[in-house]
Amino acid sequence: GAPTISIFQKPAGVIPPGGSTTICCSCQCDNGYFDLYKGGHWVHTLELRGSRAEFSISNATEKDAGAYSCHYRDGGTVLAHSNTVEVRVQEFRLPEPVLSVLPGPDVAAGADVVFRCTIAHPKAGCFLYLEGLVKEVKFIPKDEDCKLSHVHKGYEGRYSCQCFTRNGSFKWSAVSKTLDLVVR
């Protein structure tokens, strides 16, 4: 069968004009190439390094926003396509949120974990991100927490959050500092 390839943005979330992000394409492949596409149009090709290729966007503008995907090929044959990841470029108009986790960043398997994204704004909702996922883990409404029940090794990783308000148009915060969750 065809190899499974994945795509994700690092750091996750909306980036500001002039900011930077990396689009990561990975697969369980020995060699070959990744072609990066934006909106169905070829952008760049990179040779596989280990099991991944990283495409950097720096000094981002509105032109960098869009839906990106990776095609994995060996020689001239495309063997697999990734999902798409949506890169968004917008001004940050809200304060940076603070991400915390209870009971702490190091928990036993089977425990319940609560993520709290705190922002100094009366009406902002937030997204919780886990590095390596193409979409956010969860939307967290204002004044609520995100509870993950019976966590296991699959929940481990680097989390962050980003908040927004929607009053006609979206206003975004910067992405919080990251927090590493370890499940024993």
From TrEMBL:
It comes from the Eukaryota. InterPro entries: Ig-like_dom, Ig-like_dom_sf, Ig-like_fold, Ig-like_Receptors_ImmuneReg, Ig_sub. The keyword Disulfide bond applies. GO terms for biological process: immune response-regulating signaling pathway. Keywords: Disulfide bond, Glycoprotein, Immunoglobulin domain, Repeat. Pfam families: Ig_2. Residues 3-86 form the Ig-like domain. SMART domains: IG. PANTHER family: MHC CLASS I NK CELL RECEPTOR, OSTEOCLAST-ASSOCIATED IMMUNOGLOBULIN-LIKE RECEPTOR. This is OSCAR protein. It comes from Phaetusa simplex (large-billed tern). The gene is Oscar.
